[in-house]
Design brief:
By secondary structure, the chain is mainly beta. The chain has 1 helix and 8 strands, in the order αββββββββ. It has a single domain, classed as Jelly Rolls (Sandwich). Strands 1, 2, 3, 4, 5, 6, 7 and 8 form an 8-stranded antiparallel beta sheet that branches.
Length: about 120
């Protein structure tokens, strides 16, 4: 696969139409749009966007992401709530469950990792 380089504004133009989250928790129902640069591989990198709303996190692999825009609170099942804003970088260990509370449309660049034995 070739090297892929984008400026932050370009990243968001490659996203498909938004779809509702699978596990919403009330109204409004958040909608996400995402694309990966390396297809359906278990380890993948891409960009993601989510409109305001509350929902349960569904990616259970380890993930590193840098937030480009927006504001949210992530409430892990184990631990203290984490306020996330544009410019923040976050690492979610494998198996991290919790509730997303998206306050302003959230946009991030991410890498989701294969599970290691």
């Amino acid at each position: 696969m070739p090297i892929v380089s984008f400026r932050p504004d370009d990243l968001l133009q490659v996203l498909p139409d938004a779809v509702p989250v699978k596990v919403p928790l009330g109204e409004p129902v958040a909608a996400t749009r995402s694309t990966s640069f390396n297809g359906a591989a278990a380890s993948r990198a891409g960009v993601w966007e989510c409109s305001p709303g509350d929902w349960r996190r569904q990616v259970m692999q380890a993930e590193f992401c840098t937030f480009l825009e927006g504001e949210a609170v992530f409430e892990p099942d184990d631990g203290e709530p984490l306020t996330i804003r544009a410019g923040d970088a976050v690492y979610f260990p494998a198996g991290t469950g919790g509730i997303w509370r998206i306050r302003k449309t959230l946009k991030k660049a991410f890498v989701v990792f294969d599970e290691t034995p």
